[in-house]
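LAB NOTEBOOK - FOLDING QUEUE
OPERATOR: T.R.
BATCH SIZE: 2
PURPOSE: Compare the predicted structure-token outputs for two unrelated chains run back to back under identical settings.
PRIORITY: normal
REVIEWER: second-year student, initials M.K.

ITEM 1
FIELD SEQUENCE / FIELD STRUCTURE:
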Amino acid sequence: MLITGAVTGATVLASAGTVQAIPLYPTPDPDPFYAAPPDLAARKPGEVLATRAMPPLLIFPGTTVTLVKFRSTSSLGQPIAATTTVLTPPAHRTDGPVLSYQHIINGLGTRCAVSRVLYSGDPNVQIREAIALNAVLARGWSVALPDHLGPTFAYGAARLGGQITLDGVRALRQAPDLRMADSPVVLAGYSGGGMATAWAAALAPTYAPELEIAGAAAGGVPMNMVTMLEALNYRSHPAFGLVLAAGIGLEREYPDRFPISESMNSRGLAARAAVADGCTNEILAAGAGHSVRDFAASMSLVADPAARAVVEENSLELFDGIPTMPIFEWHSPSDPLIPIAAIDNVNRRYCAAGVRLFSHHTFSPEHLSAAVLGIPAALGWIDARFRGDPAPSTC
């Protein structure tokens, strides 16, 4: 029997109860701007590959929009092409402050990219932080919005997001038309965007040691994906679609070490096909109320040391890198979606290493509202970094 998914090249072979599946990648973006050039391997990480002036956006009035394509690196050390969208305000000045904001991207398809969402009329994919970002632009700061999941939309590959974020900063400093060669830069993000931000901060000393970054503000960060999965313990969950998406994304990034499709039953493969190009709503709908056991033909991957190592390698609590930049971290102490103990462990390790870390607890009881409640304190902290004030610490 031949089952073909909705995505080009997405083919699953099943016969006599045996299922063999290959990774299901997203449909390539039809815009050739996003394609990697043939000489990509000869380019350096962060090198600008192309820029494009984009149409003005009503949600960011008076702002100039520039799409920048640059060379980055996959989790396997391979060259990839990545993009970031740079918003420059009317009051932009040469070498003015830049906020690299790693927006939440709960998606597996190219239409979920921030650079695409900005111009989408789909109400299900929006930049909901537009109000806060307009407040930033009104201060004269520019904003960079990287597509930090990479060209295959490897949702869950948090380390990759950190590398793309850093290469995005390299690129905006190299693009002459942006006039940001000596701009002070601060990184920020929440939840999935917070993962990319926190990983960028931890990787910077080794991955991009030449970059001077004024600080990183990361909120609601899932610091340990292993303990998150263990806490789920095969139970059904209304947001299980995000777990499914993370499995698909990790398989895309680590096809040899995380072959989750080979362990899926027909129901799981159908769900995989349904979300392969999906964004938040499609992903949540496909997994709502389900569990790992609903979609698994075999649980062998759970005990596979190579697969577990992939999850560990994308868990910041288990990474020994230490940021050299100041850190602002915020979360809800009662957040039910992320392991709080992992955040506390990372904070203690950073403090012991001498990091200027400020940890802020919101009064929110859950994950989403904590993002909003933490923004005022985060913006105040970021503003102080751009002023050059000494970084506070709660260590």
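ITEM 2
FIELD SEQUENCE / FIELD STRUCTURE:
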Amino acid sequence: MNIELTSLHWVYLAFIVFVLITLIRRRDTTMVCIAGILVLALIATESLSGSVSGIFNSFIYATKELLGTIFIISIVVSMSRVMIRTGINEIMVAPLTRFMRTPALAFWGIGLIMMVSSFFFWPSPGVALIGAVLLPAAVRAGLPALGAAIAMNLFGHGIALSGDYIIQGAPKLTADAAGLPVSEVMNASVPLVIVMGAVTTAVAFWMMQRDRKKGTWRDGLVEGGATLASDANSIALPLRVKQWAAAIIPILFLLDVVAMFVFNLTGGDATALVGGTAILILVVLTLIAHRNQGIEEVTSYFIEGLQFGFKIFGPVIPIAAFFYLGDAAFTELLGSHLPEGSNGIVNDLGVALANTVPVNGVVGSITLTVTGAITGLDGSGFSGISLAGSVAQMFAAAIGSGAATLTALGQVAAIWVGGGTLIPWALIPAAAICGVSPFELARRNLKPVLIGLGVTTIAAMFLV
């Protein structure tokens, strides 16, 4: 069925291009997205007051859609803060350090531990949770500080964050933009995350070993490392209490994972389970650690976590607001209807593309990788994945299949580039905890990540 494209479609497409150009130039996209919402609302409502109101309403809509994601991340960060300050995190990971006896074991060990930790705590809090203990052990085993930073970075901000299977913040954003269930995008991302992670980490390790043997390795050390762990152990707790807490907390989250499988919990239900567990852990630990001041300190930890959450997702809201207009939210927000037979601006553009341009899985895969990588250039990894989901929806509509795979591919590319493995200002958590230059860390990551993206794109071509 042919859908007649209107000015709304062309304006929406033009602003997608503007957003991409802005990202390529490493400028902020907020103003472009606000302008896009205003122009679309003005065309749709033919009312200045209605279009101005549309900006605010779209922000409210986006915030409501993202609120669960913002809260779970904020709560996990709040919990991680009290764990760091009481030293519980040190007790939790200390038994694992005995396995780091060689540089190779230290690299893969610190990486895998970081990955598992990041699935539950997200990578930035995860760096703080384990870095203070694992880094000295890794260095003693002969692994350079920069090598430890690479491992923590690729496994945490790369593998764990690009899949995000426990907290589910990333797949929620891309799935919503693509109009797909979260579980479908998560399932489609599994082979892509495995390929990307295996290739990138293997290449990074091989390059490190090669350069160390050739004598061309540079540690990239800077003064003032381990800043994220500077307040660890600032609250005194009896050793026995810390040992019990360090044992019970992983068990509680493991039970959450078991419950997800047993009761088939995904999306918001899975997030709620992890969030509720984190809240209870935060409250109990705070009351134990702060005693009489515990009631007030719980609020302080919540505030600290929320500040982190909104700092991360502040740039996401206006971008998500714009891209939500490309789907079902258009009529709800602007009170205007698209042409008869329309399935949303993005779907209409996809159908039109299929009728005019020969599109296939190869072209779609390459385009989504490039789009995802470009959206990651702002350094957040999250602010542009709604765009990746929208573009995936367009190409899937044109191809007739592969929506989930293309969406997952755009998500993986965006987060590997912008989530903390290539953009220097996104590398600061791992670089700071290891005391190395974020620019040297980015330089070391560049070839492995680009090779990984190339191989993953080829893999996606066979899955679309």
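REVIEWER COMMENT (ITEM 2): The chain has one domain: 7-463.
FOLLOW-UP: none requested
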